[in-house]
# Entry
Amino acid sequence: MQLGYIPPMTKGLTLDRSYVIRLVEMLEEQNVESVWTVEHVVMARNYDPLYPYSKDGMAPTAPDTLMPDPLEWLAFAAARTDRINLGTSVVVASQHSAAILAKRVATLDALSGGRLRLGVGIGWQREEYRACGVPYRDRGRRLDETIEAMRILWRDEWATYRGKHVDFENVHMDTKPFRADGVPILIGGSTEVAAQRAGRLGDGWYPYVISPEDFGRGVETVRATAKAAGRDPGQIGITIWPASFDFTKTFDLDFVKSYVDRGADRVVVSQGESMTTDIQGQRDFIRRYQDQVVAKL
# Structure
């Protein structure tokens, strides 16, 4: 069972060079498998309440929330570590140029020795799309094309892709990922459509705020869709952050096991669950979680 960690997203810490160095070095010392960063390019002051994981449509951000560029933050973390995998949770890839994102991702993956895990999603904030200069409508298809186009750019010496939103012919991207088969792409989102996308296109599925029962149904959808597409369902990894659904059950072994029994092969915890930003306090939290939960799964 792999253990991932979401670091603090807090002003005064998340971009504190000394703090981040000590944090990622501690995570690697504790044999945490992966560290995961979040993306929002901007947050509007008065946004349409479309956040899908709360009853009021409002995102759970606080005045001191800080979300730097996830790939840049992971690049810094990569330079201070050797083994820990580097994940995005998630990049709103449909807001990005497919070619530019492919080059950034390939560069980080190559320099980190193949440690990048690219989580992608479609986002929910209209105002953020507007600020990025990208239409909100048809963002699902744009995400599909972005995934397909990035893989072609990574794979082919001279790449051609013809889509509605992404289009290029006989172009050469000189920077390739560390691995010949490219960077693993995880599909974020808890809907049936997200699970289907993971089955069709993903190397993994990473839902958020999802009950064990709905998670189980989603895993079945991932596997059935993969099989229908001629893909091996067993090659699609499943990541889950149990506390995103119930923040009080971090150490509830039966609760966490209910996700693992339904197919999760990576469990993620967050700094928020440790109730401290102190490095030693987070180390103690991780050790306790490894001993009381991970070791018993």
About this structure: The chain has a mean pLDDT of 98. The two ends are 7 Å apart (CA to CA).
